[in-house]
Design a protein that fits this description.
single chain; alpha+beta; 2 domains; two-stranded antiparallel ribbon; 14 helices
């Protein structure tokens, strides 16, 4: 029996009982759908995090009071241990770190912003130096960015996000109008280009004012965030070491003491996210593996039933010259075709699930192009593993006893 003939018989056997075949493959379909949908979400999140959530460029890093916090315990320990960073720390970094090309400082609060009878709630209020706005590359839709002289004289000016402009001014030109930020009047000098959303949260709901104005108006006791940029991305680690030496010296830390400040960089955020997504994938793979094993057991059970149902057929084939390996190959091929069909169905369902996730939830999902090949390969491997015993049992049937069976 050649390969094409065996494949034809296997497909005919699959189509002869479509409902039983579908129920048999349900475990494999669910497993393949789940693993590919999970990979699609993680793949989309990787691109999403890289493009939208990580705003620091390859040559930039941030120094702040906490660094990257991954647990409540770590956060509470940092509150008790780490002092607030101030402008003197920033000036020391500027003066003593030779690899720092540009440096900006910012603080962040929440605020309510009003224009006449319109109000925007939950607005991110940033007090920033003009240099920071250049480092973080704010794109301008209209107007301009905050200038150095405005920060020097603590001017009452504001650069607003696109959502603020839409909510407060509608079709009106925002530049040149007066808004109230926490009851204080500011002149809008620029509107940022739209940046979209992250997991359904707007990135355009912000107001930026000069840092000096923020500290003069709303207080100067907040810990500042210091963003540094180097000319060459390859100097990033060395520049961070320079900053570490300066701050440890200013904070009078001993050699064995840990840092009482933290760093955030694009590489660190990417590493953190990749470790998290890898852990999620491993958990999902374990859960899906159970589903595939269950599906394989069901396939084996159905193939054993098929051997019993087709005992006379097996005896007849052996009587006209079929060898043990021909019978074994036929049943093994049927098991592989059955499982591979479940893998293909799982790919189809996973593709539809990816589209549904992308359009109906804030989660991104990018369907992996390699999914069909991997899914069919894994499903075929499941079919081979769980089809070996039924195929062997069929091949060892005695033809005379098989022909006598009813």
């Amino acid at each position: 029996m050649n390969l094409l003939e065996g494949l034809r018989i296997a497909i005919w056997s699959l189509l002869a009982n479509p409902l039983r075949s579908f129920l048999t493959l349900l475990g494999i379909i669910i497993g393949v759908t789940a693993i590919i949908a999970t990979v699609a979400v993680i793949n989309g999140l990787n691109l999403y995090v890289e493009e939208k959530m990580i705003t620091l460029g390859p040559g930039s890093f941030e120094v702040n009071r906490f660094g990257i916090i991954t647990s409540h315990r770590q956060y509470h320990e940092a509150i008790l241990r780490n002092p607030e960073l101030n402008l003197n720390d920033a000036e020391a970094i500027r003066d003593r770190c030779s690899l720092i090309w540009r440096m900006g400082v910012k603080v962040y609060h929440g605020a309510e912003v009003r224009y006449r009878n319109r109000t925007a709630q939950g607005v991110g209020l940033n007090g920033s130096t003009p240099e920071l706005m250049r480092i973080e590359a704010y794109d301008v839709e209209s107007g301009r960015l905050i200038q150095d002289e405005e920060d020097a004289r603590a001017a009452w000016v504001a650069f607003i996000g696109a959502d603020i402009a839409d909510n407060l001014f509608g079709q009106l030109e925002a530049v040149g109008r007066q808004i109230l930020v926490r009851g204080r009047r500011f002149e809008v000098i620029g509107v940022g280009a739209r940046r979209g959303t992250v997991f359904g949260q707007s990135r355009d709901n912000y107001v930026v004012i000069p840092l000096s104005t923020f500290r003069k108006t709303f207080g100067s006791r907040d810990s500042v965030q210091i963003v540094c940029q180097v000319r060459e991305p390859g100097d990033l680690e060395q520049a961070m070491d320079e900053v570490r030496v300066v701050l440890r010296s200013r904070h009078h830390l001993r050699y064995n003491d840990g840092d009482d400040f933290g760093f955030i960089s694009a590489d660190a955020l990417n590493t953190l996210w990749k470790n998290l997504s890898q852990m999620i994938f491993q958990i999902a793979l374990f859960v899906v593996g159970i589903s595939l094993v269950v599906g394989g057991i069901v396939v084996m059970n159905i193939m054993l039933v098929s051997v019993v149902e087709r005992t006379r057929e097996i005896g007849l084939r052996k009587a006209i010259g079929a060898r043990h390996r021909d019978i074994r190959r036929q049943f093994l091929m049927e098991s592989v075709v059955l499982s591979a069909a479940g893998g293909l169905a799982g790919v189809l369902f996973a593709w539809m699930a990816s589209l549904a996730i992308r359009f109906f939830t804030p989660l991104p999902a990018v369907f992996p192009l390699w999914a069909p090949l991997v899914a069919v390969s894994i499903s075929a491997a499941v079919g081979i593993f769980f089809g070996l015993w039924p195929a062997r049992k069929a091949s060892l049937l005695n033809p005379i006893e098989a022909l006598r069976s009813e």
